[in-house]
Specification:
Chain lengths: ~220, ~500
């Protein structure tokens, strides 16, 4: 007998006392949804879109992300300033990043290729991306690998990540609302502040393996 | 047999003996007290932010229960989804089989080293030791796991395996051991947590960048989509999940959830319960493999579904609720016994209250340590209060105590067996039998009570023989000069003599 059959057989025998276990959930999932009481909130509290953006900014900052606000036409100037202040000589941009975002930047633009090695990425100073959705209640950015966000590794290996959020369109209040906007078949990375650890005396310290500096630009009016 | 299911596990002393040693270690006591109290207060604040916590907890419980009810269907659905997305699914009935599968998969790549994300399942099966025996080096990349691995130590906490170490001890381990494993610790390393984290970053980076094979566990697996989820903080998880060409995930079968939407519950309750954060820094979700064109992550993905005692646990109607556990470790942080005894005393990779009900079910109660674990609790119930999936740990503890003392039918490796009553509890059983006999016979009870009252001045302060341990930390109750029943008969509750007592029955 294969281990698969062995384990599934054990599961079925283990559930012999459960009355309708053998019948299984209805194919359309309706029986499952009826059994799970989702009495929890879709979002916590009522907020205007502007207030939701404010909450996002507050929670991002609370976990040590550096938050900037700008209008769409100010973005190239702001990005140039952030990268210059960082002293970045090279900046990586995913293929679908709007070209004008980096038009004022002095740093050399590095292209991400499928064949780029992790060591090459490690030599890049900064990375600039968009995002798929941002969650206000938790201060979270979600990247889904779209053309303006690129492969997961480009926002991981470089030490400085600048993420542009289009507000208020890309901002939702809560985790349940965010999941509804996302496509599970895409590779997803949820980012809440810079890399951190609680492993020394259960106290949070920022800066381990991921980017140690996370800057978030909340861009309005596009 | 139970020892064989957990490869690489030495024989552990029973909990009382191990705890007796641990509580005398003042450094350990101070480290644990500091860490658990810090996190306790923070968790309470993080939970208080959500006014629907009770509903989230209930939903989490129901999701897990419904999944367990139809676990076979959801596992089949998960397998189908993962395969459709380009992954390969393997099934491992026990630790040895899982280790064999992973070893062969690594061998097939031609590599001799792997990078690992912290995973309870791979610790449970002793994967690192099994790989080492086959000439494959496994590098732990989680900071606390690194501390444990470098210090040739054992993990003592689910979330923070090196919680028993303070910053000074960590600095010493880094200084002395890092050089033997790769890049040495920087000169002049101090004990500030930021510097220690930086030393780990430098030490591990070269390993991440050259790694070809990653090994992980998973916090959740979504049956309908085939999506796996890893929740982490440092970014070592992202490194292991995205940079290597081959990814092998070893996951317990109870980690499956039916729908994508179910994540909305656990992504709210898990971070707040474990690290007391609104959200942990990084969560990775992936479905199958990436194609050559996008090249976003591993081209080969293997999922190893692990039983190793889980189906046996599922067969126990009371004990199966332990399989709801999402490994947040809130129960450890709040437990007065864990705080004092530390994680090592539990003799398992699952310490604390959840370990006390999980280990004896996964491994059986055949060994001394596993038979003693259901007693590693004062039954205060704090663990149940904080559990985000409402596991009634005290209920399961009492249930397992009964099993140890009285024996009975259990399932081991899929087969129903009848356990004999444990030998160590003969005196307890004799006492209970005697009590049962006496309480059923009023004459014998009266006689016994009168005898006890007359001889009261000769009663010892502590019990002799097998009762000595029990009375070492408890006072024996003083026997009154006259048994209550005699006093009642003589005075009618004090009324007959007009002794000023109130009538009790409210006539």
């Amino acid at each position: 007998m294969s281990s698969r059959d062995l384990i599934l057989g054990r599961v079925r025998r283990a559930l012999a006392d459960v009355p309708d276990a053998a019948e299984g959930p209805a194919g359309d999932g309706s029986a499952y949804e009826a059994a799970v009481d989702r009495g929890y909130a879709r979002e916590h509290g009522g907020r205007t879109p502007e207030e939701t953006v404010d909450l996002l900014a507050e929670n991002l900052a609370d976990y040590r992300a550096i938050v900037h606000h700008c209008a769409a036409e100010e973005l190239p100037e702001l990005l140039a300033r952030l990268l210059a202040a960082r002293g970045a000589r090279t900046v990586l941009a995913p293929p679908g990043l709007p070209p004008h975002w980096l038009q004022a930047v002095d740093a050399t633009r590095v292209r991400d290729r499928a064949a780029s090695t992790p060591h090459e990425l490690d030599r890049v100073d900064s990375v600039v991306t968009g995002c798929a959705v941002a969650v206000a209640e938790t201060g979270t950015l979600v990247l889904d690998g779209s053309a303006d966000q690129g492969r997961r590794r480009i926002t991981l290996v470089p030490d400085h990540h600048v993420c542009v959020v289009r507000v208020p369109d890309q901002v939702v209040s809560s985790v349940p609302l965010a999941l509804g906007r996302l496509d599970p078949t895409r590779p997803l990375t949820w980012i809440s502040g810079p890399s951190a650890t609680s492993d020394i005396e259960l106290d949070r310290v920022e800066g381990v393996h991921g980017p140690r500096t996370l800057e978030v630009v909340l861009m309005s009016g596009e | 047999m139970s020892g064989g299911a957990f490869v690489g596990m030495p024989a552990f002393p029973p909990f009382p003996r191990a705890a007796h040693e641990a509580v005398r270690n003042t450094t350990l006591r101070a480290n644990l007290r500091h860490a658990t109290h810090t996190i306790r207060d923070k968790r309470a604040r993080a939970v208080a932010e959500l006014d629907d916590w009770a509903e989230l907890r209930e939903a989490g419980k129901r999701i897990k229960d419904e999944t367990l009810r139809h676990l076979d269907r959801y596992l089949e659905q998960l397998e189908e989804s993962v395969v459709r997305a380009g992954g390969t699914v393997h099934w491992a009935a026990d630790a040895a089989e899982a280790n064999r599968i992973v070893t062969e998969l690594v061998r097939a790549t031609g590599e001799t080293e792997v990078v690992k994300v912290k995973s309870m399942a791979t610790q449970e099966i002793g994967l690192n030791e099994a790989l080492e025996a086959e000439g494959i080096h496994a590098y732990e990349t989680d900071l606390a796991e690194l501390i444990v691995q470098l210090g040739k130590d054992r993990p003592s906490h689910i979330l923070v395996p090196a919680i028993h170490r303070n910053r000074g001890e960590i600095r010493d381990i880094f200084r002395e051991e890092m050089g033997a494993w790769g890049r040495p610790a920087p000169d002049g390393l101090t004990d500030t947590p930021a510097e220690l984290a930086d030393a780990a970053r430098l030490h591990l980076r070269e390993k991440f960048l050259r790694a070809k094979v990653g090994v992980s566990g998973a916090n959740f697996m979504v049956a309908e989509t085939g999506t796996l989820v890893v929740v982490e903080s440092e970014g070592n998880g992202r490194m292991c999940l995205t940079l290597p060409e081959t990814l092998i995930s070893v996951v317990g079968i109870e980690k499956v959830v039916p729908t994508w939407r179910d994540l909305e519950v656990f992504l709210q309750t898990l971070p707040r319960s474990s690290t007391a954060e609104r959200m942990n820094p990084y969560t990775s979700m992936w479905t199958g493999t990436s194609d050559a064109q996008t090249a976003d992550g591993p081209r080969a993905f293997h999922l190893v579904l692990l039983d190793n005692g889980r189906t046996d646990t599922l067969a126990d109607e009371v004990g199966r609720q332990a399989l709801r556990c999402i490994r947040c470790s809130a129960c450890l942080n709040v437990c007065p016994v864990y705080e004092r005894a530390g994680g090592h005393a539990y003799g398992s990779v699952y310490p604390g209250p959840i370990g006390a009900i999980l280990s004896p079910q996964l491994r059986g109660t055949g060994s001394e340590i596993d038979a003693s674990l259901p007693y590693a609790s004062s039954l205060c119930g704090a663990c149940y209060e904080v559990c985000p999936v409402a596991i009634d740990i005290p209920e399961v503890l009492v249930h397992l105590r009964e099993r140890v003392v009285q024996g009975g039918e259990v399932t081991r490796r899929g087969v129903k067996v009848t356990l004999k009553p444990a030998r160590g509890h003969a005196a307890e059983r004799a006492a209970m039998r005697a009590a049962g006999f006496v309480f059923a016979r009023p004459g014998a009870l009266r006689l016994g009570q009168r005898l006890a009252s007359r001889t009261r001045r000769f009663h010892p302060r502590t019990l002799p023989g097998p009762g000595r341990a029990w009375s070492a930390a408890r006072d024996l109750p003083k026997v009154p000069a006259e048994p209550f029943r005699d006093w009642w008969e003589r005075t009618r509750g004090g009324a007959a003599q007009g002794s000023g007592r109130q009538e009790v029955s409210g006539k």
